[in-house]
């Protein structure tokens, strides 16, 4: 049995997962996002102990919503929970879960769930793409997950030389033009009131909605084109918001990818597939995949 822990701003979840990717046990507890570091540590410890005391696991993979030191498992940067800066996440989970623990950035870890339990099974290369309120890409290249220490997950790839200011302080990051926050702003600017997200926009009958949708697809394609040029993963496994946006939306992204990679006869033609794992547990499956990848 494999262990997985997911840390979110305000929630900790732990699961025991079998080798087929089925959840056999799930424990979760919420906490206040403003709580002190010691209080959050107590919640993490309690959830790990509850989940793994009777259901022993051979290792625990942890999905962290920010950067972690992949060697020590300590949190390096977590913008939504700054009080956890430097927090020894892996050590705390390992101690209370009574198994070796490893931690990884959530977006990069999702690729491991796809690799072992999802649309990436049996493949040597693919990219796993998170869309929606958060944006990121995890890459499997020639059998190896590309997750170098100090690397990030793609949201802050710069796609415009004179773009908008990003939360990270740079100008023109991919996330400034390809997340739900951008979509809502663009919809409002186009005279579409109250758009909550992509699924909502797809249902709007106004002509302006189609134009915003096309721009959003093009913006998502920008980052994926860079990934295709560098790693030629061929398969892009789509998670999150774009998963439910309809085939036409995904076709437009795919067309953009094909248009700029037609020169290569050697690379697999880029194509999008919708993730087949339950979104609600994809990070936990990624954690279980991390155990298989890193702990064997
Ligand atoms: Zn940025």
Automatic annotation (TrEMBL):
Single GO molecular function: kinase activity
Chain segments annotated as coiled-coil in the UniProt record: none
Entry annotated with the keyword Kinase: yes
Keywords: Kinase, Transferase
Keyword Kinase: yes
Highest taxon of the lineage: Bacteria
Protein name: Glucokinase
Species for this entry: Jiangella alba
Family recorded in the similarity comment: Belongs to the ROK (NagC/XylR) family.
One matching Pfam family: ROK
